[in-house]
Amino acid sequence: MSKNIHYPLILVNLKTYLEAVGKKAEDLAKVSEKVSNETGTCIGLAPNFTDMSRISTFNIPVFSQHIDPIEPGPFTGHILAESVVEAGATGTIINHSEKRLKLSDIELAIERAKQVGLVTVVCANTTRVGIAVAAFAPSMVAIEPPELIGTGVAVSKAKPEVVSNSVREIKKINPDIEVLCGAGIVSGRDVYAAIKLGSSGILVASGVIKAPNWENILMEFAKAAADASGDL
Question: Which residue out of 107, 144, 178, 220 is catalytically annotated?
Answer without folding.
Answer: 144
